């Protein structure tokens, strides 16, 4: 083994998306935040880590997809230009196609290169064909299923065998065609019109099924928690000094509102994470987005841009970062739709909690439809540039059994984020709301917003939910004050308009900060103003429809 004190050797991992680079990287470095997924574009930034016990530093670069101008593509090309050693990854079913693509896009000549051919569990060429390919390329070739761990010794051996890439482009034309063609779009999605409708329904089901499952679970848990935990605690602590009593068991108390919101939000976040991660890991997500590509181009997006939008239903911040894989031409439109129409898991949890407290969980479906329709209109109006006509280079992924280790790691990450980040912030919101009861701030805000609230027929007590939703989307949960009495007193139209307005008026502070960092403060400010204008206008339109019909 190489001595640990030797000068480090940096090796960049290059290839198309979903070819196994990140799995390989995680196996050898043990870097937990580099959890691989089967969704294309899971790597949107350069990640590097050393291989323990060696002098090797592996660099995981975003996968190549199209001959375009995506930010992630630029990152990959910049780092490839600086690299002296590289490991190329190609899928066995499309080896010739992907190697030609890498030769066209990357500066391979003069660099020490190793080739790893993945997905051999799907297609493994005969031994004679493998030997022919190795002799043709004159570089070491390893045939692997990257879901099976590669050892450090094997990696060291590979890098010691690495040869300088000197294959003429014309020679690549002699590579054999795969006997098994790369996967094509799944059959149901290839049916004209019907296929797109099925893809859209599948999209909705990814969120509707876990949300309604969470509703029934929370409905069962809430009475038990109230009877055996919350009510006895509230009674025991009711004689505390006024300030402590308000902070713990008041309308916005840590034990009352905090626990009530946890019961409703946590099941949604966990189950939505399970549904989305399984869809990504199985490869289904890419087929769905590809099927919807034609429709999305009508609003300035591509099917590929739908991937960050769907990611936004988990976390908007992660989705904004993942939009780096979009074309520069469509990235702004994608982020605009994420900010307006991607209800993050915390927002979904808060929304379901409010609809559930009002006894109207079925409102979640029209709420989701309204977000989708108005979000599409919003994106089309404010982003008039046509979607780029880019050619798909990377093939569609296989539909496969999800990798359980990766799936469990990603779900664990979502749960950890909720427990260690989201819930503490919401508890701070509870404390802030409790303390603000002793100040005239809410009264001032009520006076300022009263004319608008009157137009929507909303009571002044709803101001708190609108204000705190600016900080975090689960700030809506403060409307569950006093055991949901306020929400329970609202009509169907009022609760729908309130939740829609509070959740669309602005993205949360952290998302706005991320947008400003990724683009500019001016861009984030403009997006905020446009979204607020669309939210107010669409809320007034919905109010007219709802109060006219009902």
From TrEMBL:
From the record, give the transmembrane residue ranges.
197-217, 237-255, 262-279, 299-321, 333-358, 364-383, 418-438, 495-515, 527-549
Does the keyword field hold S-adenosyl-L-methionine? no
Enumerate the spans annotated as G domain.
10-117
Could you name the domain of life of the organism this protein comes from? Answer: Bacteria
One GO molecular function term of this record is: ferrous iron transmembrane transporter activity
For this entry, the protein name equals Uncharacterized protein
CDD domains recorded: Ras_like_GTPase
Q: Which UniProt keywords apply?
A: Membrane, Transmembrane, Transmembrane helix
Nucleoside transporter/FeoB GTPase Gate domain sequence ranges: 262-357
- Whether Oxidoreductase counts among this entry's keywords is no
Which InterPro entries does the UniProt record give? FeoB_GTPase, Gate_dom, GTP-bd, P-loop_NTPase
